[in-house]
Amino acid sequence: MLYKTTFFHNLHASPYNEVTFYDFNFNEHLLEGVISMGFTNPTPIQEMAIPIILKGQDIIACAQTGTGKTGAYLLPVLDHISKTNKHQISTLILAPTRELAQQIDQQVEGLAYFTGVSSIAVYGGGDGMAYEQQRRGIQNNVNIIIATPGRLIAHLTSGVLKLNHLTHLVLDEADRMLDMGFQDDIMKIISYLPKNRQTLLFSATMPGRIRSLAKSVLNNPQSVNIAVSQPAVGIDQQIYRVHDQQKTPLLQMLLKNGSYSSILIFASRKEIVKSLAKELKQAKMHVSAFHSDLEQREREDILLSFKNKQLPIIIGTDALSRGIDVEGIDLVINYDVPGDPEDYIHRIGRTARAETTGTAITFVNHRDERKLKNIEVLIDKPIRLIDVPDELAGIQQVKHEHTTNKRPQNRRWGNKAKR
Ligand code: AMP
Fold first, then answer.
1. Taking the model in full, what pTM does it have?
2. What residues does ligand 1 touch, defined as CB less than 6 Å away?
3. How far apart are CA 126 and CA 409, in angstroms?
4. Residues 120, 105: contact at Cβ < 8 Å?
5. How many angstroms is it from 108 CA to the middle of ligand 1?
6. In the chain, where are the structural domains located?
7. Is residue 104 within 8 Å of 52, Cβ to Cβ?
8. Does domain 235-392 bear CATH number 3.40.50.300?
9. Which of 95, 119, 368, 379 could disulfide-pair with 108, CB 3.0 to 4.6 Å?
10. Is residue 135's pLDDT more than 70?
11. Is pLDDT at 21 greater than 60 in this prediction?
């Protein structure tokens, strides 16, 4: 990984006069955490956003996952808390999913390790005991709460949580929160917060509704924008044009090829996820299916064993594409083309994290050509077409749709663009 080396001196001086973490005058204990995380130089979003946030200004930042955006808001916030040193809830971070909330919490734990700053992740989906634990954590006056909106409202309306001392509000993956219908919840939460606060909004995309949200919740914000919605350069993107009956055999061939050790497979619906996982298990592959029918504990166990490299393959829906922050994923396969081109960027962004390299392969059937076109418009280039291996060429196409891959036919099969 380009950013990650463990040489302490790199933090202080760079032979290329680059910005280093030393330039931000962070609290020394926070710098220790930065070193222990293996960060040497700030990523571009960190370089741009940190000075603005340190000055106390509101910010609207367009940055995808994989760019280091979590550190971009966490570091100045942690610096502020460690310098003011108060034992009260001063920062609220809202995130769309529990997986993202947990990952932010893990980054806080790593970066804040030597500062004494405390945090708690508050999200739904657990049992009564989890709720109780969260309630007790809140009452202990942690410094930072990282929460999904629904569960936070439960604690706010029960009167357990008081946010009168809040100085920082972060909206992380704001576009996703709006996609998931959290707009009203967010506005309700904001009605509980002091007006005099610093608000930091991070979003992978900047559609009009994010701009209007920003207008209503930010105060004279500075904008920061890094290469909007572009996949990391280290990702080798490929497509195969296939029909439905070729997809699973091609998938099995790619998985058996053996060059990849940590693999994510995305499919559009959980029924496909479940049936694919079953087929691959029958072919003696070590895979787990990740979808919304699983208990939270089961999801966590899957992610943990994937992170620890005990589990080489996960098959999931887009729920997986936002939350997962695992290093060393070398292959992402889109079993079908995601409907929203931005989901494509999120899915493939799971590989080549923080400037490593990886491969992203997408299976495109004729119904998905239009979706592919939209992706290529968004990323502003054609994706490399790879020929389907000869062994699979003879597989007959069944005219009726594959039962596990049935989707509404709302797109016509138009003239296929040759490339
Ligand atoms: P994010 O975009 O916040 O999801 O971060 C993506 C990954 O990059 C995470 O695993 C971070 O730990 C890592 N990361 C963030 N900032 C840096 C940095 N300055 N140097 C090295 N790695 C980083």
1. 0.62
2. 3-4, 39, 42-43, 46, 65-71, 325, 353-354
3. 37
4. yes
5. 12
6. 2-225, 235-392
7. no
8. yes
9. 119
10. yes
11. yes
